Amino acid sequence: MAQLWGGRFTGETDALVYRFNASIGFDKKLFGQDVEGSIAHVVMLEKQGIITCEEKDAIVKGLTQIRKDVEEGKLAITDQYEDIHSFVEAELIRRIGDAGKKMHTGRSRNDQVALDMKLYVRGEILELSDRLLTLSETLLTIMEENQAVYMPGFTHLQKAQPTTLAHHMGAYFEMFKRDLLRLSDIYKRMNYCPLGAGAFAGTTYPLDRAYTASLLGFEGPTLNSMDSVADRDYLIELLAALSTVMMHLSRFSEEIIIWNSNEYRFVELDDGFSTGSSIMPQKKNPDIAELVRGKTGRVYGALMSLLTTMKGIPLAYNKDMQEDKEVSFDAIETVKDCLVLFNGMLGTMKFNHKIMEQSAMNGFTNATDAADYLVGKGVPFRDAHGIIGRLVLYCIDKDKSIDALSLEELKQISPVFEADIYDAISLKTCVEKRLTIGAPGSAAMAEVIRLNRVFLDAYKNEHHKNGS
């Protein structure tokens, strides 16, 4: 049992206590970040005259070789060590001797683990943003290609007014746009370096914290050493943002599940993103959409777990905070997988344009426009509303859409109707009359698509700057 804190203790730690306390089973994921942070730390120590140039060179060379050996499978990270920091330091000392014992000068495991986790999360935010950008690109392409594809819009899951497939997809684009902006905000807010905070009260060594921060690509050092080791706000923010991403994916999945049903048939899923039944040969199940919907609860659970862990912890560091890692690692990987699979499903999904349009016509989605037509002819709105209500009842009885009624039938309901009613309530007219920005009319949609393209290009430029 390799430990960094054995000097104070004369007795052997109980094996169960050791296993319960140990974190190497999951924090080995931070191996690369631990080496990166340690290299920056010793470079700063040498610059400040705290260690010699020879010692710095030996430590950097040793750490670089350890990283290479682990990456190539020549060196295994085992549970002989309590955590990843113990493993790296013990292996370094074994290889280079006493010089390796100086690596930890002016540093605590508290600020070390705070740094490792920030470096890890920072990289994961960039990867999550990449996957959200890919999904947003897929959505924008669908919007560009379906500006004149009519479909029913819904409220209360009831057909309400006609819209376009581009307009409907645009609503999800806006959701994922906000998700991208949230991730960007979290990245900027968390990008300050905790290294040098020590256990919680700084150190007596003349560290240059700003220099270490610059070496690691941070905006600067954190400004309170207690908060530096006790802060997990950035993780809570990230898990909240990821919960919102999953909520958006779940809503979208729910619609795809409905649209894929025999009753709707708005979409057909690619064989690669659906499964069959072991007993019913006719089935084509939307498993990916259902799994994404199901895994949303898993990510919500991670957020609630960390919020509960942090709610009663006094300053500064407490071992409870070790519980931040497993739930965060799992949530991040879950969301990354969901984004990739959902994008694959969406990008290969076929939309049944004719069925969508027919559904809009048969669902009386043009009833509001028919009422507006009567108002335009001088009928008071409340009267027009009643007339169209009776007209819909007539259509239901005759199993016809409003468009399919003859002018004679229309006039039986109200003599105000004339031949121009058919153009007034066509799906094209109903959609095109809605010209305000954000509405489904073609001119408005074209402008929104242009603005969305500008947004994606600008976000990618900023994103690549952060990743460089």
Describe the structure concisely:
The protein has 468 residues and is mostly helical. 63% of the residues lie in helices and 4% in strands.
Task: Write structural notes for this entry.
The chain is mostly helical. The protein has helices at 15-21, 24-27, 31-47, 53-71, 84-96, 109-145, 165-190, 209-215, 225-230, 233-259, 287-310, 324-348, 353-362, 367-376, 381-398, 407-413, 421-424, 427-432, 442-467, and strands at residues 150-155, 158-164, 267-268, 350-351. Strands 1-2 form a two-stranded antiparallel ribbon. A two-stranded antiparallel sheet has the order 3-4. The two termini are 39 Å apart. The mean pLDDT is 92.
Topology readout:
Layout: H1 15-21, H2 24-27, H3 31-47, H4 53-71, H5 84-96, H6 109-145, E1 150-155, E2 158-164, H7 165-190, H8 209-215, H9 225-230, H10 233-259, E3 267-268, H11 287-310, H12 324-348, E4 350-351, H13 353-362, H14 367-376, H15 381-398, H16 407-413, H17 421-424, H18 427-432, H19 442-467
Antiparallel strand pairs: 1-2, 3-4
Helix pairs in contact: 3-4, 3-6, 3-8, 4-5, 6-7, 6-12, 6-19, 7-10, 7-19, 10-11, 10-12, 11-12, 14-15
